[in-house]
Design goal:
- It is a single chain.
- The chain is built from three helices and twelve strands.
- The protein is about 25% helix and about 30% strand.
- Strand 6 and strand 7 form a beta hairpin.
C-alpha cells in the first residue's frame, strides 16, 4: 500500500509539473510572440468584419517599427482597458492631409485600394498632421462619418502603444480566412 501511495504522489507531481510548464509556455507565447484578437464594430470594414478573429504578431515589433499599410492592434489612447485595430497610414516624419475627403501622404494622394470605392474620409477638427518621432498615424478602413475612432480623433499614436501587427485572419473559415491585405 505504501509503494502504491508513492506512485500516486509521483504521478500527481508529474502532472502538476506538466501543467505548470504548459502555463509558463503559454504565458511566454502570449507575452512575447503573438496574441489573438477579435474585431468588435465596423471601423475596419470592408477589410475586417465584426467577429473576425486575428493573430497579432509581436515579433516584428522587436526588430522594426510598423510600416505604412500594416494593420496593427494598439492600446486605445482614449479608453482604458480597450484595444483598437487600425491601419498605419503614416510613420514618423510623414505628413498627412485630408482634403475634400481624400487622404494625402507627404503631399501626394494616397492610393487606398482597401477602402470602399468612392469613400469620403471625414475630418473632425484638424485636417493636417505631422507625425512626430516614435509615432504613427492610423485610420480605420471604414471612412463613414463616426465609423472609426482613429488618429483623426486622438492624433498620432506612440509606438509603445502598438501591441502587435495583424497579418492573418483565422476565423471565420470561409473565403475571408487567411492572410490580410
Amino acid at each position: 500500500m505504501d509503494e502504491n501511495n508513492k506512485d500516486v504522489k509521483k504521478e500527481a507531481m508529474e502532472w502538476i509539473k506538466s501543467i505548470l510548464l504548459a502555463v509558463v509556455i503559454a504565458l511566454f507565447i502570449k507575452t512575447f510572440i503573438f496574441n489573438t484578437t477579435y474585431v468588435l464594430g465596423n471601423s475596419m470594414y470592408p477589410t475586417l468584419h465584426e467577429r473576425d478573429r486575428l493573430f497579432a504578431n509581436k515579433i516584428p515589433l522587436y526588430f522594426s517599427t510598423p510600416k505604412r499599410g500594416e494593420i496593427v492592434v494598439l492600446k486605445a489612447p482614449d479608453t482604458a482597458n480597450k484595444d483598437y485595430i487600425k491601419r498605419v497610414i503614416a510613420i514618423e516624419g510623414d505628413t498627412v492631409g485630408i482634403i475634400d475627403g481624400k487622404v494625402y501622404l507627404n503631399g501626394e494622394l494616397l492610393e487606398e485600394d482597401y477602402i470602399e470605392e468612392g469613400a469620403y474620409t471625414e475630418v473632425y477638427g484638424e485636417n493636417y498632421w505631422e507625425v512626430p518621432k516614435d509615432h504613427v498615424f492610423v485610420l480605420g478602413d471604414n471612412r463613414d462619418e463616426g465609423a472609426s475612432k482613429d488618429s483623426r480623433f486622438f492624433g498620432c499614436v506612440p509606438l509603445e502603444s502598438i501591441k502587435g501587427i495583424t497579418t492573418f485572419r483565422y476565423f471565420p473559415f470561409n473565403n475571408r480566412f487567411g492572410k490580410l491585405q
